[in-house]
Write a structure and sequence with these properties.
The structure holds 2 protein chains of 2 kinds. Chain A is of the alpha+beta class. Helices cover about 45% and strands about 15% of the residues of chain A. In chain A, a hairpin with a 4-residue loop joins strand 9 and strand 10. Chain B is an all-alpha fold. Chain B has one domain: MetI-like (MetI-like fold). In chain B, about 75% of the residues lie in helices and about 0% in strands. The chains are: A alpha+beta, B mainly alpha. Chain A: Belongs to the bacterial solute-binding protein 1 family.
Chain lengths: ~425, ~290
């Protein structure tokens, strides 16, 4: 899951984040050790972003099947969720269960806030690990223990304008980077302000997907040091940066991109590198006549079909919960293929299990097929709590390389330097843990 | 019971509130700034290390911190004079005897202050859009090439300043207008009889009489502008290439986004020290100016 979208804020004169930080800092210091407070006989379920609205429609079915349980749904906005989860942990007021983006899982596992689920899965007739896409399942396993059950998946791939590709003489989407580069070159015309692809310079998911296609891991020595000096990462970064230098993508952020759906529809971009929710966006925003002109394709790799990033959200049970059995019952309900199919129909969130894909609206949807194919090949991001910060740093350095401030080699070295600094505390903690053993 | 003693019970509630909600948190944050409090420390307090001035030392060696401080000072140095000039200009126009529909304009010019920054940021992002923006359209009529306002690191901060000045000048305008209306009309009358023109009256009557108000407005504005946060947060998220990253924005990212509360507290205290030094110097200057 990425933190896109909505923004909050208060007027300049009234905003005093310094004061808020001070107050919060104290609250953390004072409450850090307190235990969870008494709760009523309800199951508190936190959702993040739009999922809350869709899941509200699924809950009546669960409450009918389990008359003794009442679910209290709390919808957190995406931008506030991370902060709220950590504050809730510090204040001992975590919910019973929650949706959790799989880049945030390592943090809450590091906090020891989540209950392990191995025994429950072993005894479950509904949740069968073999039915899940293996890389997605793996993002929930830390040191051999399972802390979450995948709820929906997210991977980035290519949306493309088949009509524009055909006009340029290509009858199929790209299979490898060389072919992709040829198409980008043929479809870009900076003088007419058309570009092969839109890659917002402030989103890290695109470069990260290319980097995950490489054989080398992004961090080395068990997540102690950055591994961005590897040949593989440099290859991915060079491909990414070249796309801008060759003017096959405009060097703009998603703030300036404004309405990419409209521009894609107008043919300003022939490719759009994005995630599953955009199937719904394009169906809704582009006119009916244009619906046959766009399609989706798995990411091309350096030499043949490539991997993608294993994103998405899981369902987790908090260790402090007093209703862990009930929370598990809800997870099982939401993991049923027929419920996941309804969830997809409501919101467009793609299910993490193969049997959910075998029926419903997903089975015959041509636009979803590329996702189904890529999901078998996705790779997880490094399971360290600092990952999101590292990915942000990676994108900042990449943006500087696009602006010409770094060469690819310099950018890789700078990135390793910054990442090693971010991971300094982690190294200290890991070394101490090992010394104690 | 002496009057002195009797005063304490009356002060106690205010002291208690201030102590619990201001003094204690500040002291707590100061203590935090000497530690490396982060996610690992939140998980297990044994992972908390006392680092003395380590956070401060590291910040002073971090290019991003200096860049953020530089952006903040840029914003203050350009934004405050612009903002006060705009406020003063608007206040003078509203105070002019020739002004018509005064109540309407006063409300209209004050409106940006009370609108939500998020809502107006959306409008401004459209105005500043490179391709479809009104501002570039107007510049195009003058033959100026389109400016990539929010995407070019050189132009992003000027765009933020423009936005902040527009958003905030109405507040100072109201204060200055009150100050203008408090100037006795006899002074102007006397100056006019002595043959002073409009400009000389502005320079020798209006501005000296307005000086205390202007001083207060300047200090409040400087203190407020050092806390630049909401504008880049909603307009650019600190970008492009971190060119609108302010000191407070850096603190927010460190503390709330990455949960490094130790170094975030250190940023807060460094910013506080800077703001304190600048406003104290201004206060001293104004005092000396009014004594002279």
């Amino acid at each position: 899951m990425s933190r896109r979208g909505g923004q909050r804020g208060r007027a300049g004169r009234g905003a005093r984040p310094a004061g808020r930080l001070l107050a919060l800092a104290l609250a953390v210091a004072l409450l850090g050790g307190c235990a969870g407070k008494e709760r009523r006989d309800e199951l508190v379920f936190w959702t993040i972003g739009r999922e809350g609205e869709a899941v509200a429609a699924l809950l009546p079915g669960f409450e009918r099947a389990h008359p003794g349980i009442r679910v209290r749904l709390q919808q957190l906005p995406l931008t506030a969720a991370h902060q709220k989860l950590l504050t809730a942990f510090a204040g001992g007021s975590t919910p019973d269960l929650s949706q959790l983006g799989n880049t945030w899982l390592p943090e809450l596992v590091a906090l020891d806030a989540l209950a392990p689920l191995d025994a429950r899965v072993a005894a479950s007739a509904v949740v069968r690990p073999a039915d899940y896409f293996p890389s997605i399942w793996a993002t929930n396993v830390f040191d051999g223990r399972l802390y979450g059950v995948p709820w929906y998946v997210d991977t980035r791939l290519l949306f493309y304008r088949a009509d524009l590709l055909r006009a340029a003489g290509f009858d199929h989407p790209p299979r490898d980077w060389a072919e992709w580069r040829r198409m980008l070159a043929a479809l870009s015309d900076p003088a007419r302000r058309t570009y092969g692809i839109l890659l917002p310079t402030n989103e890290y998911e695109q470069l990260m997907s290319l980097a995950l296609q490489q054989p080398e891991p992004l961090l080395r020595d068990g997540g102690r040091y950055g591994n961005f000096g590897s040949a593989g990462f440099k290859r991915a970064l060079a491909f990414y940066v070249d796309t801008f230098r060759l003017r096959q993508a405009p060097a703009i952020s998603n703030v300036e991109a404004g309405n990419p759906w409209f521009e894609f529809g107008r043919g300003v971009y022939a490719f759009y590198f994005s995630g599953p929710w955009n199937i719904g966006e394009f169906r809704q925003r582009l006119p009916a006549a244009a619906q046959d002109e766009w399609s989706t394709a798995p990411l091309p790799g350096p030499g043949g079909p490539g991997a993608g990033a294993a994103g998405g959200s899981s369902l987790v049970v908090f260790r402090a919960s007093r209703h862990q059995d009930e929370a598990w019952a809800l997870i099982e309900y939401l993991s049923r293929p027929e419920v996941q199919q309804r969830f997809y129909a409501l919101l467009g969130d793609m299910p993490p299990r193969r049997s959910s894909w075998a029926g419903g609206a997903l089975r015959d949807d041509p636009k979803a097929r590329a996702f189904r194919e890529q999901l078998e090949r996705v790779k997880p991001t490094p399971p360290v709590p600092e990952w999101e910060r590292i990915a942000n740093e990676m994108q900042l350095v990449a943006a500087q390389a696009i602006a010409g401030e770094y060469t690819v080699d310099q950018a890789a070295a700078e990135l390793d330097r910054r990442v090693d600094r971010i991971l300094a505390k982690r190294r200290w903690v890991l070394d101490r843990q090992e010394a104690r053993r | 019971m002496s009057a002195r003693r009797a005063a304490w019970p009356f002060l106690a509630p205010a002291f208690a509130v201030l102590g619990v909600f201001f003094l204690l948190p500040v002291l707590g944050a100061l203590a935090l700034s000497f530690t490396d409090y982060d996610l690992y420390a939140l998980a297990d307090l044994r992972n908390l290390r006392f680092v003395a001035l380590g956070n401060y030392w590291e910040l002073l060696h971090r290019p991003l911190f200096w860049a953020a401080l530089g952006h903040t000072c840029y914003f203050v140095a350009v934004g405050v004079p612009l903002s006060i000039a705009a406020s003063l200009g608007a206040a003078l126009l509203l105070d002019s005897p020739l002004a018509r529909a005064r109540a309407f304009f006063r409300t209209a010019l004050f409106a940006p202050v009370v609108t939500t920054v998020v809502a107006v940021a959306i409008v401004w992002r459209y105005l500043l859009n490179t391709k479809y923006g009104l501002l570039n359209h107007a510049l195009g009529l003058l033959g100026v090439h389109p400016v990539d306002w929010l995407g070019d690191p050189r132009w992003a901060m000027p765009a933020i300043i423009l936005f902040a000045v527009w958003k905030n000048f109405g507040y100072n305008m109201i204060i200055l207008l009150a100050g203008l209306q408090a100037i006795p009309p006899e002074l102007h009358e006397a100056a006019r009889i002595d043959g002073a023109g409009a400009l000389r009256r502005l320079w020798h009557v209006t501005l000296p009489a307005l000086a205390p108000t202007l001083g207060m407005v300047a200090i409040l504005t400087v203190a407020g502008y050092f806390q630049l946060f909401a504008e880049p947060y909603v307009m650019t998220e600190g970008g492009p290439l971190q060119s609108t990253m302010s000191a407070l924005y850096l603190m927010y990212e460190e503390g709330f986004k990455w949960w490094n509360l130790g170094s975030a507290s250190a940023v807060a205290f460094l910013l506080f020290a800077l703001t304190f030094a600048v406003t104290a110097a201004m206060l001293w200057l104004f005092r000396r100016g009014s004594e002279a």
